[in-house]
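REQUEST ID: PR-0412
SUBMITTED BY: lab tech R.K.
PRIORITY: routine
TASK: structure prediction, single protein chain
INPUT:
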Amino acid sequence: MVLFGEEVPSFQPHSKPPLCAVRVSRTVVVEPGREYLVPGCTRFKRQFKGEVMLSPTKGFVEKHRLLVARALVEAQCSKTVPLRIFNPGNTSITIKEGAIAGVLQHVRAVQTAPTTDQPGQTIIGIIGYCLPQCPSTCKSSTPRALLS
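STATUS: complete
OUTPUT:
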């Protein structure tokens, strides 16, 4: 690309981390101020084995105005992927079957945190990505309702 008469090379990462889309398994109505566990489905490829990170897609969050929790899940071909969805608005929102709510990415242990109560808690990071900091307000919040 040429910008102001100067050649600007496009960014091409050497290796893109593999992603796997997670779709909503059935049509769901999410009531205002409620949190739900919604079953998700995916077609796992051979490279998805072990623990993977479920992250929401920007398009799903913007379109439906819902919050989707990040979660560490075990990639298994026959299992559903749980989607933890919260409706912060004041109107009910319908999510149609097949909507792509998140993606799965490989994760790896970054370091083991020393604790006195529990043996080795592990800090997890997405390979090639940096997770944003959680604001202090979200650390004390608890779900209002949890339905399955």
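NOTES: The domain at 17-109 is CATH 2.70.40.10 (Deoxyuridine 5'-Triphosphate Nucleotidohydrolase; Chain A).
REVIEWED BY: pending
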